[in-house]
Amino acid sequence: MKASPAEQKELLRLQAADTRLQQLAHTAKNLPQNAELAALAPQVDAVRQRFAARGGELEDARTELKRIESDVELVEARITRDTGRVEHSASVKDVNALESELASLRKRRSDLEEIELGIMERIEVLETEAADIDEERSVLAGQQEALESARATEQAGIDAQLKALAADRATIAGTIPDDLLALYEKQRGRYGTGAALLVRGVSMGSNVKLTESDLADIRRAAPDDVVLCPDSGAILIRNEESGL
How many CB atoms lie within 10 A of CB 193? Predict the structure, then answer.
């Protein structure tokens, strides 16, 4: 393949743009906030589970309290009813039976009120624990939000650079002959580097000094011949510093 030395040198600009695009893509993929958010995620999940567990316990306790309160109301209603019967009954036998039942009802009410008090105390403890966990959850959420905001800011800056660089690359690629550009893309896709400078006998594509035999072949090539690095497969760009 033939291409003028000036056209071949443009490949170095294209390679520089592609290298920078790869670097930016790598940076975007490996933003420090990604690792920090990943490390924070298990803590967030653990706190969320603890909060959900306390919420479930609290809901169960409140349901139990309502049931006990309902039982107390029923007992009190029966006490009121039986007290009224005692006051209006003329039968000693009935009064004695009612008094016995009232004693049982009052004992039952006392037991229920004791249970009720215990449940209320447990609800108070659970509410305090839930509030503490919620505060912890809020702190973690704040840390997440700060990290996500910082990541978004950095990503926006990278995206702007990528957009500008992609435009520059398109401009550079537009000045390169189609066949030369196709070869560059092929070599870059296959080996990772499409074009590299030859500096004092060392290919910048492989960072390896070429053999004397390889250098002799390159010396015999015309300036407009497109030559490939025998090690990296990249198009070798020659200049006055190539050591030929």
Answer: 21
pLDDT digits (tens, 9 = 90+) for 62-95: 999 999 999 999 999 999 998 888 887 778 787 7
Q: What is the domain class of 31-159 according to CATH?
A: mainly alpha
Look over the chain and give the mean of its residue pLDDT values, rounded to a whole number.
94
Distance of CA 198 to the CA centre of its chain: 43
Q: E strands, the chain, where?
A: 195-199, 202-203, 208-209, 227-228, 235-237
The domain ranges of the chain are 5-25+177-237, 31-159
Q: Is the dihedral of CA 221, 232, 180, 5 positive or negative?
A: negative
pTM comes to: 0.71
Take residue 157 and report the two structure tokens written for it: 């800056």
The pLDDT tens digits of the residues spanning 155-178 come to: 999 999 999 999 999 999 999 999
What 3-state class would DSSP assign to 224? Answer: coil
Task: State both tokens at 138.
Answer: 């809020």
